[in-house]
Specification:
Rossmann fold; 2 domains; 15 helices; 13 strands
């Protein structure tokens, strides 16, 4: 039994470049609440955050950049080369991160939690979770990802790999192993299979003990009837490899983006569209907008919309790869696709870098519905602030939709919270304006 009552917590780990974050994002799409413990550790060292002064006092002001922030590359060069220095850093950050995790898990409304942590098994966290999932990949792929995706030299990449505890030690303690040697679609299918196994176990546990969320190991294998779940949708439509032309088709229904108060909501079939009344002013009194979550079955359609609106040449597999980093929402009205938005909620910060409405879309109705859908999803993930990056030449009506929803135009220098400012600066695409809104009154890592 884990540390948190009425929660089932997955501890997700694996060495660098194995694909932990991609697995975490997939589980988030399935309805889990997810936490990036390593990302929280970075936030604890932001100016004013609890670990900032202890880190500066321990390692010296030379680890700061010109703006007084901890330069992670400088600090990393030291701690990943000297185990004693890494231990001193972890002694500072881990207690703060632990408090943050406890707060996030306790107030999460989702019954299933995922905590990603590269040092999950080396600290106290392993004893607090209910199960351990380890993401694995071949050493050759691990090295290739560090060089190609993170821009490391082969020597630097090998040094980083060798500085970590052996991957085989993690594998020996795994309850579930996710092998990430194939395509993004292969990874999604693997995670989806394990997710449904978990839901089956949780359902069986609820039958056995209605007061507990903990899965039990039955003495005899359950019958197919006992373990039945709604049939899985295929991860790709049969015609997925055939290019689509002409008018954008309507989407198959996906799942609700609203509150997830119970296990039943997580296990409910994702087959019915959610009708969201269009906020006023409405183009017609009866107009409704269907908001649908991007999933593998509509990845090709997402690529088609992005290509049409941005002049890109994305494939279905490009979108599947993007699912490892971000989520998509699609808006449909009267059976037609009208808009798509791509967003990421990471380290309690929402970033929207794609907000596209088709030319025939009623701008106000579709914009407001997508804004509300992203905001609802962000609040479910306990996001503290939302940053939307709109093109400098975005139509005034789209900007007005954000303004009417409580967002305001903001320059980087006007963002007062250092962690928020850093996140906005790192992720803002060129030639864009920032629309910002505070989504919660409190913060997890309160300033000193």
């Amino acid at each position: 039994m884990g540390h948190w009552a009425n929660k089932y917590v997955i501890g997700l780990t694996g060495n660098i470049a194995m694909g932990k974050s991609a697995v975490r994002k997939i589980l988030e799409n399935f309805g889990a609440y997810t936490i990036d413990a390593d990302g929280l550790a970075h936030q604890t060292m932001s100016p004013g955050a609890p670990a900032y002064l202890p880190v500066v006092e321990t390692f010296g002001r030379w680890v700061l950049d010109r703006e007084g922030r901890v330069d992670r590359s400088k600090l990393g060069a030291v701690v990943f080369s000297h185990p004693e220095a890494l231990a001193r850093l972890e002694a500072i950050t881990h207690p703060v991160v632990g408090q943050g995790i406890d707060t996030l898990v306790s107030r999460a409304r989702q019954p299933i939690i995922v905590i990603e942590a590269i040092k999950l098994l080396e600290g106290n966290l392993a004893a607090q979770v209910d199960t351990i999932w380890v993401v694995d990949a071949t050493p050759e792929l691990q090295l290739q990802r560090l060089v190609e995706k993170r821009g490391m030299s082969p020597l630097e990449a090998r040094k980083r790999i060798e500085g970590q505890n052996a991957q085989r030690d993690k594998l020996t303690r795994a309850n579930v192993v996710i092998t990430n040697n194939g395509s993004p679609q292969d990874l999604w299918a693997q995670v989806e299979s394990e997710w449904h196994k978990l839901l089956n176990a949780l359902k069986l546990a609820r039958k056995t003990d209605t007061q507990s969320m903990r899965p039990v190991t039955p003495t005899a294998a359950p019958t197919p009837t006992e373990m039945a779940l709604p049939p899985l949708r295929p991860t790709a439509a049969p015609e997925a490899t055939k290019p689509r032309t002409g008018t954008l088709p309507s989407l198959p229904p996906v799942h609700k983006t609203g509150p997830l108060p119970s296990l039943e909501d997580v296990t409910r079939p994702k087959s019915e569209p959610i009708k969201t009344p269009t906020p006023p002013p409405q183009p017609t009194p009866a107009a409704t907008v269907d908001i649908r979550r991007g999933m593998p079955r509509n990845a090709e359609l997402i690529a088609q919309v992005l290509n049409q609106m941005l002049g890109k040449h994305l494939t279905r597999m490009d979108v599947m790869t993007a699912f490892g980093e971000k989520s998509y929402m699609l808006a449909e009205m009267n059976g037609k696709i009208m808009g798509v938005t791509g967003f990421q909620v990471e380290n309690l910060i929402t970033r929207v870098d794609e907000f596209l409405l088709l030319p025939e879309a009623p701008i106000d109705a579709i914009a407001r519905a997508l804004i509300q859908a992203v905001e609802d999803a962000s609040k479910e993930l306990q996001s503290e602030v939302g940053f939307i990056y709109l093109p400098l030449n975005a139509p005034a009506q789209i900007v007005q939709a954000f303004t009417s929803s409580g967002y305001e135009r903001m320059e980087i220098d006007a963002i007062k919270v250092p962690a928020w400012r850093d996140a906005a600066q790192e992720s803002q695409p060129p030639n864009t304006q920032i629309m910002a809104k505070k989504l919660r009154p409190d913060r997890v890592l309160k300033p000193l």
